[in-house]
Specification:
12 strands; 14 helices; inorganic pyrophosphatase (n-terminal core); binds manganese (II) ion; alpha/beta; 6-stranded mixed beta sheet; Diaminopimelate Epimerase, Chain A, domain 1; 40% helix; binds guanosine-5'-monophosphate; 18% strand
């Protein structure tokens, strides 16, 4: 089992030994793992007698809005004053599923100002060292699995109820591509088995996350697939979505989730990337995926102000959509050997 290290677990126990006001923070544009891990941890802390609140940097897609106690989440973009107060008043701050304050948008200055001790639980590469307790393990598939191990280290597995199980199951399912990515281990399956025993309904959760597309989303997927370009020489697929294509198909937050994976389903593909224009923020949002040892984390860190994991990363570009794609194509020759290995 990937338990927390004893030293970290002891510090965590100490910090939680009396009732505290706790803020729990996911990264900006939170995904299933960010929301599953924060909401699962929140419910556990409340059962332990703490006053715990999830404060998200911004709103998230509809397909996450059925999660247990989702309605309690404070979103900084919608309720900035309450979000700021909650962070200012916190005795303790958990940061989940990210490891650098720059990942939490407009919450960054509030976190930097806080004098509360931080506890990081995260599985991304190159953690920053702002936390009193850093539980960082890049080998674990999901932060939600790490929350399970943290509860385990605290002797709290018996407190997992249907709601906690549902939250953690959701995070593990979404971050493993439904248990198929290479980060999925026998331990992951043991954790999942335990979560199902404690009430997680696997079929229902899968449906609630994946079978809620609007007709518009499927039309947008049609546009994305039609725009897909495959660069044989580099075993690389890329997709573009321009702002006008998003607008023409009634784009809503979360609609493009998963599109990038279609590129990787091409036979022989080693890397897939999607470029999504966001005129409002004046950026192109980028998602990258790879197979095998090719690190999209490194590529994104170097070229797209981003990062993530070896096989899944994100980033952004301040150039136009057209120039971003041209830049991407211009850097590929330096990766040709690795992409053909
Ligand atoms: P996605 O492509 O699904 O948005 O993100 C893939 C992975 O990369 C996730 O683990 C996510 O946390 C990380 N990620 C996404 N965007 C960024 C970014 O702009 N910067 C960094 N450092 N990581 C990102
Ligand atoms: Mn994650």
């Amino acid at each position: 089992m990937h338990l927390m290290k004893n030293a970290e677990a002891d510090k965590l126990k100490e910090l939680l030994n009396a009732p505290k006001k706790i803020a729990i923070i996911p990264h900006k544009n939170p995904d299933g793992d960010a929301m599953g891990s924060t909401l699962g941890l929140r419910r556990f802390l409340i059962k332990k007698g703490h006053d715990a609140t999830v404060v998200s940097p911004n709103d998230y897609p509809e397909f996450l809005k059925w999660l247990p106690d989702e309605g309690t989440v404070i979103k900084h973009d919608l309720q900035p004053e309450i979000a700021a107060k909650t962070i200012e008043n916190a005795d303790l701050i958990f940061t989940l599923d990210f490891n650098h304050f720059s990942r939490c948008g407009d919450l960054q200055p509030l976190l930097e100002k806080s004098s509360a001790p931080f506890i990081m639980i995260d599985h991304h590469q190159q953690p920053n060292d702002y936390a009193m307790v850093t539980y960082s393990d890049v080998s674990i598939c999901a932060t939600s699995q790490m929350v399970y191990h943290a509860l385990e280290a605290l002797g709290g597995l018996d407190m997992i109820d249907k709601d906690i199980a549902t939250c953690l199951y959701t995070g593990i399912m979404t971050d493993t591509g439904s248990f198929k990515f290479s980060s999925t281990t026998a331990t992951t399956h043991r954790v999942i088995a335990h979560l199902i025993e404690h009430g997680a309904n696997n079929t229902q959760i899968h449906e609630d996350i994946y079978d809620t597309s609007s007709h518009n989303r499927l039309k947008l997927l049609g546009v994305a697939l039609n725009n897909l370009v495959y660069l044989n020489e580099y075993n690389t697929a890329y997709i573009t979505l321009a702002q006008e294509e998003l607008d023409a198909n009634g784009f809503e937050k979360g609609d493009t989730e998963g599109f990038v994976n279609y590129g990787l389903s091409l036979k022989g593909a080693r890397m897939a990337i999607i470029f999504i224009e966001n005129k409002q923020e004046g950026i192109v949002k980028i998602s990258l995926r790879s197979k095998g040892d090719f690190s999209v984390n490194e590529l994104s860190r170097k070229h797209f102000h981003g990062g993530g994991h070896t096989n899944a990363a994100g980033g952004k570009s301040d150039r136009s959509l057209k120039d971003t794609v041209a830049y991407f194509i211009s850097i590929l020759p330096q990766y040709k050997k690795a992409l053909n290995a």
